[in-house]
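2024-03-11 09:14:02 INFO worker-7 job=invfold-0412 stage=load source=structure_tokens
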């Protein structure tokens, strides 16, 4: 099923409106693809995906890999990723209970992009820090 952006047009001085379905376009304010971009652009989503690229992991293993993420934020991130179909949560009927998270096929299609983004951020850090220092010196008062 194709996704569409719904645009409501209200006519001035008339009590009627018309809804128009448009193909996805993230430049449109009403397009739900913006929510997708927001989700996949979050640092904890990117880092969670890269952490899960080689194998399924338990929550504690992901949290240890992502230094600095709180339990609450990681829980929210994984839940949102599961809702979006990016992560598959597997519950094993064992004592104690075991839960693992793995990338879905949809997430695997996005993985090369987010991996490249992470690599770019790490490789570009020295240049960005130089630009930050230069900018801050220029505008320091």
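2024-03-11 09:14:09 INFO worker-7 stage=emit residues=141
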């Amino acid at each position: 099923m194709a996704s569409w952006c719904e645009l409501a047009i209200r006519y001035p001085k008339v009590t009627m409106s018309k809804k128009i379905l448009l193909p996805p376009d993230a430049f449109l304010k009403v397009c739900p693809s913006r929510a997708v971009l927001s989700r996949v652009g979050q640092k904890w989503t990117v880092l969670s995906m890269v952490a899960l690229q080689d194998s399924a992991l338990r929550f504690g293993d992901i949290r240890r890999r992502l230094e600095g993420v709180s339990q609450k934020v990681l829980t929210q991130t994984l839940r949102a990723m599961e809702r979006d179909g990016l992560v598959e949560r597997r519950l094993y009927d064992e004592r104690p209970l075991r839960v693992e998270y793995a990338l879905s096929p949809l997430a695997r299609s996005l993985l090369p992009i987010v991996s490249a983004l992470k690599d770019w951020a790490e490789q570009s850090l020295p240049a960005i820090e130089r630009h930050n220092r230069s900018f801050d010196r220029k505008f320091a008062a």
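2024-03-11 09:14:09 INFO worker-7 stage=report msg="The longest helix spans residues 105-139."
2024-03-11 09:14:10 INFO worker-7 job finished
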